[in-house]
């Protein structure tokens, strides 16, 4: 789990450090930087697995068609982009892992990594040397990819492989981070399934589910075929959230494979396109939580979408359950919300104090993100959210209001 995350010179994040909980809730206006922080986290995660430049699919993209030139603070390509993460003590001045990217005539490269390696701090600016079965290997930098990615090519070397193993352990401990903003229409859409022309049978696919929820049908079918107990848990929880739902099914036709739902309201299975947005979004959320991989960070945008106000507390409790259960390292959840009703669904004042982060933006300093320091601020925040919400989100107003009585 990440205890603290810092990002510099990325999108509207000039220099932002945030303490993170197993479940952290970000509140703030549009364009304040909530999505930018989530994109920074997912970009940092992806850098561990893909080259920054010179990869098989070309250079690294923050979003399709968007590179670091567009993502760096104010488009100033002379600035470095830096990420730091604390996984142990968030009060330490020393991050557990730091990575810096800079642009040169070759494009963006990794100019510095700093982390503990075999009991001492390794700084890649000093170069990196190790022995292989073919003789010594030296990487002077800058690098087209992180050391863990580069070292993976030596995993089968009898000399270098065991020596470099801690780099792969570091990579796994950092874990993946995925940002999601699911849409009901994308979840309900049909997905083409490859057919084996020779036999006429359908090939099982495990196509990735994108940030909108598209291809969820393939992921659920894969669980049904390979991990039935997880699929059954998703069905059970879905029925608990939506009492008319009895199960999840699949329909294959000329459009491809799509979801259906077994319902207590009709004898026929209901196509996903005729089911409520709330059911579809709950299905996506339950898939993501139940099928999470170790150390996964889920960045979820606006979990209140498509959900009646009365269902927000059960949705919050569901998120809470997957971050405070018997295996809390399994999934870490970051939520961005505009909903005062979602905040009111967090009943415990202690949870609000610990979990909520306020996001604001100023033209000179960019995004600022801070937590609540006192129970007085919790009550002021909730009181403010009960009033005219639009009046709350002028830059600086919330911060002034929370701290005016101090």
Short summary:
This protein is an alpha+beta fold.
Report on the structure:
There is one protein chain. The chain is of the alpha+beta class and 406 residues long. The protein has 14 helices and 17 strands. The strands form four sheets. It has a six-stranded antiparallel sheet with strand order 2-1-4-5-6-7. β14, α9 and β15 form a beta-alpha-beta unit. The chain is globular.
Q: What are the key terms here?
A:
single chain; 406 residues; alpha+beta; 6-stranded antiparallel sheet; 6-stranded mixed sheet; 14 helices; 32% helix; 26% strand
Unreliable residue runs:
196-201, 387-395
Number of strands: 17
Strand content: 25-35%
Give the % helix.
25-40%
State the strand order across the main sheet. 2-1-4-5-6-7
Average pLDDT across residues?
Answer: 87
Tell me the span between the first and last alpha carbons.
33 Å
What spatial form do the alpha-carbon principal axes imply? globular
Largest sheet: 6 strands, antiparallel
Q: Quaternary arrangement of the chains shown?
A: single chain
Q: How many individual helices?
A: 14
């Amino acid at each position: 789990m990440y205890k603290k995350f810092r990002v510099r010179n990325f999108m509207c994040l000039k220099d932002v450090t945030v303490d993170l909980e197993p479940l952290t809730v970000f509140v703030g206006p549009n364009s304040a930087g909530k999505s930018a922080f989530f994109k920074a986290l997912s970009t940092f995660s992806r850098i561990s697995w893909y080259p920054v430049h010179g990869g098989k699919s070309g250079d690294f993209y923050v979003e399709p068609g968007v590179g670091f030139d567009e993502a760096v603070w104010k488009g100033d390509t002379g600035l470095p982009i830096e990420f730091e993460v604390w996984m142990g003590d968030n009060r330490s001045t020393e991050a557990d892992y730091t990575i810096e990217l800079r642009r040169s005539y070759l494009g963006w490269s990794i100019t510095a990594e700093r982390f503990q390696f075999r009991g001492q701090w390794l700084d890649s600016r000093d170069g990196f040397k190790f022995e292989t079965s073919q003789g010594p290997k030296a990487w002077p930098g800058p690098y087209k990819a992180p050391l863990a990615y580069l070292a993976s090519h030596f995993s089968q070397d009898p000399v270098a492989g065991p020596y470099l193993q801690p780099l792969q352990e570091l990579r796994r401990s950092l874990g993946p981070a995925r940002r999601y903003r699911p849409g009901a229409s994308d979840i309900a859409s049909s997905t083409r399934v490859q057919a084996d022309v020779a036999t006429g049978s359908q090939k099982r696919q495990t196509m990735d589910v994108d940030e909108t929820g598209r291809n969820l049908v393939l992921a659920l079918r894969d669980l049904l075929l390979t991990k039935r107990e997880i699929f059954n848990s998703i069905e059970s929880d879905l029925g608990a959230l939506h009492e008319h739902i009895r199960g999840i099914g699949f329909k294959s036709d000329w459009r491809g494979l799509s979801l259906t739902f077994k319902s207590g309201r009709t004898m026929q299975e209901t196509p996903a396109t005729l089911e409520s947005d709330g059911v579809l979004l709950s299905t996506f959320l339950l898939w993501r939580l139940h099928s999470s991989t170790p150390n996964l960070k889920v960045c979820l945008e606006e979990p209140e979408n498509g959900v009646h106000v009365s269902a927000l507390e059960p949705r919050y409790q569901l998120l809470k359950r997957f971050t405070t259960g018997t295996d809390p390292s399994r999934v870490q959840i970051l939520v961005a919300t505009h909903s005062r009703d979602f905040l009111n669904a967090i009943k415990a004042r202690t949870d609000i104090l610990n979990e909520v982060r306020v996001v604001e933006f100023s033209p000179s300093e960019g995004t600022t993100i801070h937590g609540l320091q006192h129970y007085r601020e919790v009550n002021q925040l909730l009181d403010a959210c009960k009033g005219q919400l639009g009046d709350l989100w002028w830059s600086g107003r919330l911060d002034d209001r929370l701290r005016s009585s101090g």
